[in-house]
TrEMBL record:
It comes from Iodidimonas nitroreducens. PANTHER family: OXIDOREDUCTASE, SHORT CHAIN DEHYDROGENASE/REDUCTASE FAMILY (AFU_ORTHOLOGUE AFUA_5G14000), OXIDOREDUCTASE, SHORT CHAIN DEHYDROGENASE_REDUCTASE FAMILY (AFU_ORTHOLOGUE AFUA_5G14000). This is SDR family oxidoreductase. Signal peptide: none annotated. Coiled coil: none annotated. The lineage of its organism: Bacteria, Pseudomonadati, Pseudomonadota, Alphaproteobacteria, Iodidimonadales. SUPFAM superfamilies: NAD(P)-binding Rossmann-fold domains (SSF51735).
Length: 233
Protein backbone atom coordinates (compact mmCIF):
# COMPACT_ATOMS: atom_id res chain seq x y z
CA UNK A 1 0.00 0.00 0.00
CA UNK A 2 1.39 3.41 -0.99
CA UNK A 3 2.27 5.94 1.66
CA UNK A 4 0.05 9.02 2.04
CA UNK A 5 1.40 12.18 0.42
CA UNK A 6 2.15 15.46 2.18
CA UNK A 7 2.88 18.56 0.08
CA UNK A 8 4.55 21.46 1.85
CA UNK A 9 4.55 24.90 0.22
CA UNK A 10 7.11 27.28 1.69
CA UNK A 11 10.25 25.33 2.56
CA UNK A 12 12.77 27.22 4.65
CA UNK A 13 15.11 26.50 7.54
CA UNK A 14 12.33 26.87 10.12
CA UNK A 15 8.75 25.63 9.94
CA UNK A 16 8.91 24.32 6.38
CA UNK A 17 11.86 22.02 6.92
CA UNK A 18 10.52 20.94 10.32
CA UNK A 19 7.19 20.00 8.73
CA UNK A 20 8.97 17.95 6.07
CA UNK A 21 10.92 16.07 8.74
CA UNK A 22 7.86 15.43 10.90
CA UNK A 23 5.56 14.18 8.18
CA UNK A 24 8.22 11.95 6.70
CA UNK A 25 8.91 10.49 10.14
CA UNK A 26 5.16 9.91 10.41
CA UNK A 27 5.09 7.73 7.31
CA UNK A 28 4.28 10.24 4.57
CA UNK A 29 5.94 10.70 1.20
CA UNK A 30 6.93 14.37 1.16
CA UNK A 31 6.79 16.91 -1.67
CA UNK A 32 8.80 20.05 -0.94
CA UNK A 33 7.71 23.21 -2.77
CA UNK A 34 9.39 26.61 -2.77
CA UNK A 35 10.43 29.40 -5.14
CA UNK A 36 14.15 28.66 -5.08
CA UNK A 37 15.23 25.42 -6.73
CA UNK A 38 18.71 25.93 -5.30
CA UNK A 39 17.43 26.18 -1.73
CA UNK A 40 15.16 23.19 -2.25
CA UNK A 41 18.16 21.13 -3.30
CA UNK A 42 20.04 22.26 -0.21
CA UNK A 43 17.20 21.43 2.18
CA UNK A 44 16.47 18.13 0.42
CA UNK A 45 19.82 16.81 1.64
CA UNK A 46 18.22 16.69 5.10
CA UNK A 47 15.08 14.84 3.99
CA UNK A 48 15.52 11.39 2.47
CA UNK A 49 13.55 10.65 -0.70
CA UNK A 50 11.69 13.97 -0.75
CA UNK A 51 10.53 15.12 -4.17
CA UNK A 52 11.16 18.73 -5.14
CA UNK A 53 8.80 21.04 -7.02
CA UNK A 54 10.02 24.63 -7.44
CA UNK A 55 7.08 27.02 -7.70
CA UNK A 56 5.96 30.50 -6.72
CA UNK A 57 3.00 30.59 -4.32
CA UNK A 58 2.04 34.04 -5.64
CA UNK A 59 1.75 32.78 -9.23
CA UNK A 60 -1.32 30.60 -9.97
CA UNK A 61 0.18 29.20 -13.18
CA UNK A 62 3.37 28.22 -11.37
CA UNK A 63 1.37 26.44 -8.68
CA UNK A 64 -0.79 24.67 -11.24
CA UNK A 65 2.23 23.39 -13.16
CA UNK A 66 3.97 22.19 -9.99
CA UNK A 67 0.91 20.31 -8.74
CA UNK A 68 0.35 18.76 -12.15
CA UNK A 69 3.85 17.32 -11.99
CA UNK A 70 3.38 16.29 -8.37
CA UNK A 71 0.18 14.36 -9.13
CA UNK A 72 1.89 12.62 -12.02
CA UNK A 73 4.81 11.57 -9.82
CA UNK A 74 3.15 10.92 -6.47
CA UNK A 75 -0.61 10.77 -6.90
CA UNK A 76 -3.16 12.91 -5.09
CA UNK A 77 -2.21 14.88 -1.99
CA UNK A 78 -3.48 13.72 1.41
CA UNK A 79 -2.12 16.64 3.45
CA UNK A 80 -1.33 20.13 2.20
CA UNK A 81 0.76 22.32 4.50
CA UNK A 82 0.56 25.91 3.27
CA UNK A 83 3.55 27.55 4.92
CA UNK A 84 4.23 30.24 2.30
CA UNK A 85 4.04 33.80 3.53
CA UNK A 86 5.54 37.23 3.32
CA UNK A 87 4.93 40.93 3.33
CA UNK A 88 6.61 44.27 3.69
CA UNK A 89 7.26 45.93 7.04
CA UNK A 90 6.32 49.54 6.57
CA UNK A 91 3.85 52.05 7.94
CA UNK A 92 0.54 52.80 6.20
CA UNK A 93 1.87 56.01 4.66
CA UNK A 94 4.91 54.20 3.23
CA UNK A 95 3.24 50.97 2.06
CA UNK A 96 2.96 50.77 -1.72
CA UNK A 97 0.22 49.23 -3.85
CA UNK A 98 2.80 46.77 -5.17
CA UNK A 99 3.65 45.64 -1.62
CA UNK A 100 -0.02 45.13 -0.82
CA UNK A 101 -0.52 43.20 -4.05
CA UNK A 102 2.33 40.74 -3.55
CA UNK A 103 1.38 40.17 0.10
CA UNK A 104 -2.21 39.29 -0.86
CA UNK A 105 -1.13 37.14 -3.81
CA UNK A 106 1.25 35.14 -1.63
CA UNK A 107 -0.78 34.72 1.55
CA UNK A 108 -4.43 34.74 0.47
CA UNK A 109 -4.65 34.07 -3.26
CA UNK A 110 -1.79 31.59 -3.00
CA UNK A 111 -3.65 29.61 -0.35
CA UNK A 112 -6.82 29.53 -2.43
CA UNK A 113 -5.01 28.43 -5.59
CA UNK A 114 -3.02 25.75 -3.77
CA UNK A 115 -6.16 24.43 -2.09
CA UNK A 116 -7.96 24.28 -5.44
CA UNK A 117 -5.18 22.01 -6.71
CA UNK A 118 -5.66 19.39 -3.98
CA UNK A 119 -9.40 19.60 -3.29
CA UNK A 120 -10.57 17.33 -6.16
CA UNK A 121 -8.33 14.45 -5.09
CA UNK A 122 -9.33 14.86 -1.45
CA UNK A 123 -13.04 14.92 -2.31
CA UNK A 124 -12.60 11.77 -4.37
CA UNK A 125 -11.03 10.03 -1.35
CA UNK A 126 -13.50 11.58 1.10
CA UNK A 127 -10.64 12.70 3.33
CA UNK A 128 -7.70 15.06 3.51
CA UNK A 129 -6.19 17.90 5.50
CA UNK A 130 -5.18 21.46 4.64
CA UNK A 131 -2.94 22.90 7.34
CA UNK A 132 -2.17 26.65 7.14
CA UNK A 133 0.59 28.57 8.88
CA UNK A 134 -0.94 31.85 10.01
CA UNK A 135 0.26 34.68 12.20
CA UNK A 136 -0.86 36.91 15.06
CA UNK A 137 -0.89 39.73 12.51
CA UNK A 138 -4.08 38.20 11.10
CA UNK A 139 -5.85 39.33 14.27
CA UNK A 140 -4.41 42.84 14.59
CA UNK A 141 -2.50 45.21 12.36
CA UNK A 142 0.61 46.83 13.73
CA UNK A 143 2.02 50.22 12.76
CA UNK A 144 4.70 48.55 10.62
CA UNK A 145 2.77 45.53 9.33
CA UNK A 146 0.22 47.14 7.04
CA UNK A 147 0.54 44.79 4.05
CA UNK A 148 1.46 41.67 6.01
CA UNK A 149 -1.36 41.99 8.55
CA UNK A 150 -4.00 42.74 5.92
CA UNK A 151 -2.90 39.77 3.82
CA UNK A 152 -2.79 37.41 6.79
CA UNK A 153 -6.27 38.55 7.83
CA UNK A 154 -7.45 37.76 4.31
CA UNK A 155 -5.74 34.38 4.52
CA UNK A 156 -7.62 33.66 7.75
CA UNK A 157 -10.92 34.45 6.01
CA UNK A 158 -10.04 32.19 3.08
CA UNK A 159 -9.18 29.44 5.58
CA UNK A 160 -12.57 29.86 7.29
CA UNK A 161 -14.38 29.61 3.97
CA UNK A 162 -12.40 26.50 3.04
CA UNK A 163 -13.09 24.90 6.41
CA UNK A 164 -16.83 25.52 6.32
CA UNK A 165 -17.14 24.34 2.73
CA UNK A 166 -14.85 21.31 2.93
CA UNK A 167 -15.53 20.02 6.45
CA UNK A 168 -18.79 18.28 5.50
CA UNK A 169 -16.89 16.61 2.65
CA UNK A 170 -14.43 15.02 5.07
CA UNK A 171 -11.58 17.49 4.55
CA UNK A 172 -10.05 19.04 7.65
CA UNK A 173 -8.86 22.66 7.31
CA UNK A 174 -6.93 24.17 10.19
CA UNK A 175 -5.19 27.53 10.74
CA UNK A 176 -2.27 27.92 13.12
CA UNK A 177 -1.73 31.37 14.64
CA UNK A 178 2.01 31.60 15.31
CA UNK A 179 2.62 34.17 18.05
CA UNK A 180 6.34 34.63 18.58
CA UNK A 181 9.75 34.43 16.95
CA UNK A 182 10.96 31.17 15.39
CA UNK A 183 14.28 29.89 16.71
CA UNK A 184 16.66 30.31 13.75
CA UNK A 185 20.28 31.31 13.37
CA UNK A 186 19.26 34.63 11.82
CA UNK A 187 16.67 35.45 14.50
CA UNK A 188 19.18 34.60 17.23
CA UNK A 189 21.63 36.98 15.55
CA UNK A 190 18.98 39.72 15.35
CA UNK A 191 17.99 39.22 19.01
CA UNK A 192 21.22 38.19 20.76
CA UNK A 193 20.02 39.21 24.23
CA UNK A 194 16.93 37.01 24.22
CA UNK A 195 16.97 33.78 26.28
CA UNK A 196 16.16 30.35 24.85
CA UNK A 197 12.67 30.52 26.32
CA UNK A 198 11.83 33.54 24.13
CA UNK A 199 11.84 31.53 20.89
CA UNK A 200 9.37 29.12 19.32
CA UNK A 201 10.91 25.79 18.29
CA UNK A 202 10.04 24.85 14.71
CA UNK A 203 10.08 21.12 15.51
CA UNK A 204 7.49 21.67 18.26
CA UNK A 205 5.26 23.63 15.90
CA UNK A 206 5.56 20.89 13.28
CA UNK A 207 4.66 18.22 15.83
CA UNK A 208 1.46 20.08 16.74
CA UNK A 209 0.51 20.51 13.07
CA UNK A 210 1.20 16.82 12.37
CA UNK A 211 -1.10 15.66 15.15
CA UNK A 212 -3.81 18.17 14.19
CA UNK A 213 -3.79 16.86 10.63
CA UNK A 214 -4.59 13.40 12.02
CA UNK A 215 -7.34 14.39 14.47
CA UNK A 216 -10.51 12.30 14.54
CA UNK A 217 -13.48 13.93 12.83
CA UNK A 218 -15.50 14.18 16.02
CA UNK A 219 -13.14 16.81 17.44
CA UNK A 220 -11.48 18.78 14.67
CA UNK A 221 -9.56 21.97 15.46
CA UNK A 222 -10.04 24.89 13.09
CA UNK A 223 -7.89 27.56 14.74
CA UNK A 224 -5.06 27.01 17.18
CA UNK A 225 -2.58 29.57 18.46
CA UNK A 226 0.95 28.68 19.52
CA UNK A 227 3.38 30.76 21.56
CA UNK A 228 6.24 30.25 24.00
CA UNK A 229 5.06 29.99 27.60
CA UNK A 230 6.75 33.32 28.43
CA UNK A 231 5.11 35.24 25.55
CA UNK A 232 2.99 38.20 26.63
CA UNK A 233 -0.43 38.27 25.02
Amino acid sequence: MANPVCAIIGIGPGNGLALARRFQAGGYDVAMMSRSAEKLEMFARQIDRARLYPCDASDPESLSDAFRRLRHDMGSVDVLCFNAGGGSWSSPDDTTVSEMDIAFRTNATGLLCAAQQVIPGMIEKGSGAIMITGATASLRGGPKSTAFAAAKAAQRSVAQSLARHLGPKGIHVSLFIIDGVIDLARTRKMLPDKPDTFFLKADDIADTIFHTARQPKSAWTFELDMRPFVERW
